[in-house]
Write a structure and sequence with these properties.
By secondary structure, the protein is mainly β. The chain is 2% helix and 59% strand.
């Protein structure tokens, strides 16, 4: 049973199979509605609607009472519809109070999504809406948030350019003084699954460190003029540092990580992008940290 964000006009219930929508696959929706009072309708409609939300800054100039001009920067939020599917459940008629009605809809999820992305400066949200259109009265309505997954198939097909080495199991992470290799398994990584990997590196001598952090990050960027950006920390771990030092002779350092459980997959949206990277950070006291970084492809399902 799905949890609605809004219910109006009576008792609603809905089930969706599968609960997470897969691009280019069918899904089956079953909705029941029991009106709280008798009502005339102009029809009953259902829609799956995708909405992108993005934030940007713009410079605005205002004039004061004395004619002086003031320039300041303001933050704005805009939305754009990125997908819509619609169907009609019933035509014009009357609904009796307390009489349960049941409707079904088999919908074909758009082939390219886009996938759900739940950032702060950039989002893509999908919603199922069922509306009982009432003349001269407030409509009865059910609104359900749903998620559309980013499958491995679209990433492997290159539909989204995730980065030069994002789909390689092992990739270089070069610093001028400390070249390294970072291995991740599986590839792509999934927001719903644990993963593992290893860091292979060699340094001329052990590096004094406070800690060695492992971070999976997603960089969300709004691509319009003045678009805002954010770095989302999706998962964090650590590697042991013997006696406060790390590195030295060539060695491989394995690690395991829990599922990120954050819906911020690699994605392209009309007004923004989401890209993932994996960082091995040698945190140093009173000195610039050393970052070993590689591109990562991040999906939200491994079913497709």
């Amino acid at each position: 049973m799905l949890d609605p964000t809004e219910l109006r006009g009576g008792a609603w219930a809905a089930t969706l199979d599968p609960p997470v929508l897969l691009p280019s696959r069918d899904a089956h929706l079953v909705v029941t509605f029991t009106p709280e009072r008798a009502m005339k309708t102009r029809g009953v409609r259902a829609a799956l609607v995708g909405t992108e939300t993005y934030r940007y800054r713009r410079t605005e100039t205002t004039s004061g009472a004395n004619g002086s001009m003031t320039t300041h920067t303001v933050e704005r939020t805009a939305t754009s519809e990125v997908g819509r599917l619609e169907t009609t459940f019933a035509g014009e008629g009357e609904l009796a109070a307390g009489q349960q009605l049941r409707w079904q809809w088999t919908l074909h999820v758009p082939d390219l999504g886009p996938a759900t992305f739940e950032g702060s400066v950039l989002r893509c949200d999908w919603e199922l809406r069922v509306t009982v259109d009432r003349p001269m009265a407030r409509d009865a309505e059910l609104r359900l948030p749903v998620r559309v997954a980013q499958p491995t198939a679209l990433l492997r097909a290159g539909v989204v350019d995730a980065g030069e080495y994002a789909l390689f199991g092992e990739a270089p992470a070069n610093l001028d003084a400390h070249p390294a290799q970072i291995r991740l398994e599986p590839v792509p990584l999934s927001v719903a699954s644990a993963f593992r990997g290893a860091v292979t590196l060699e340094t001329p001598e052990p590096v004094p460190v406070q800690e060695v952090r492992l971070e999976l990050r997603v960089h969300a960027r709004v691509t319009v003029a003045g678009g805002m950006e954010e770095e989302i920390l999706v998962a964090r771990g650590h590697l042991p540092a013997d006696g406060g030092a790390f590195g030295g002779p060539l060695a491989t350092h394995p690690f395991d990580a829990d599922a990120p459980d954050a819906w911020v997959p690699t994605v392209d949206l009309p007004h923004g992008t989401g890209r993932a990277s994996f960082h091995v950070i040698l945190a140093k006291a009173w000195a610039r940290d050393l970052h070993y970084v590689r591109d990562v492809a991040l999906c939200s399902t491994t079913e497709l």
